[in-house]
Amino acid sequence: MGQIKRGALIVFEGVDKSGKSTHCKKLVEALENFKIKAKFMSFPDRSTLTGKLIDNYLRNKECQLDDHAIHLLFTANRWEKVDQIKSLLNDGVTLIVDRYSYSGIVYSAVKKNMDLNWCKQPEIGLPKPDMVFLLSISQEEIMVRPGFGSERYEHREMQEKVADMYLQLSRECDNWEVINTARSIEDVQDRTCEEMCREN
Ligand code: TMP
Ligand code: MG
Fold first, then answer.
1. What is the assigned CATH class of domain 9-199?
2. Atom of ligand 1 at shortest distance to CA of 98?
């Protein structure tokens, strides 16, 4: 019996309302058209135990929680899924993931008194992505997108810091590709598919 080729772990990152989930879902469709087994996942998964606490923290701006505590909840939310992630990858399924450890690191590390290195530690040991697409978009554009401002981190000051730190991380890692979303959805799609085919 031939060995099943491991699936790829592909992550989309970017500020709020940058279009990550749209692009993830389109990429899953495109891969399925090429007969590649693919599945969409997103973090935070608000349906789990930790996910419900996270959802409350994000939607209820009055909710008081220490920045370290919420950071660890976001990370725990990924660790809750680690067995599922590993087993899908081993079964040859390519995972297209809307946010992962980098969201965890960036959104926490831009806060006052949070140390970047400390933020990275609880992510150690999670499966490493094969490729990260960072969606780049202007602040002006995200701020007029429907729903912007409804959750805790959706304000200009935070989003600008997050965008800067993402760019900083992208320069430190060689498997990141920055995608300018000013291009059409189809264009971005072609670009991501092109990159993925190069990887395979
Ligand atoms: P979402 O808008 O993609 O559902 O994500 C909810 C918010 O949570 C978004 O502002 C980014 C933030 N976030 C973190 O702060 N840490 C994390 O680990 C993740 C996955 C998201
Ligand atoms: Mg959001």
1. alpha beta
2. 3
Two tokens, residue 29? 């469709």
Tell me: ipTM over 0.90: yes
198: enclosing H helix or E strand: helix 185-199
The structure's pTM equals 0.94
Question: Which one, of 180, 58, 155, 43, lies nearest residue 102 by Cα?
Answer: 43
CA separation for the pair 106, 11 (Å, rounded): 15
- b/e map 19-49, b = 16+ CB within 10 Å: bbebbbebbbebbeeeebebbebbbbebeee
Using the atom order of ligand 1, give the atom closest to the CA of residue 71. Answer: 16
Structure-block tokens of residue 122: 């609880």
Tokens 């992505």 locate to 129
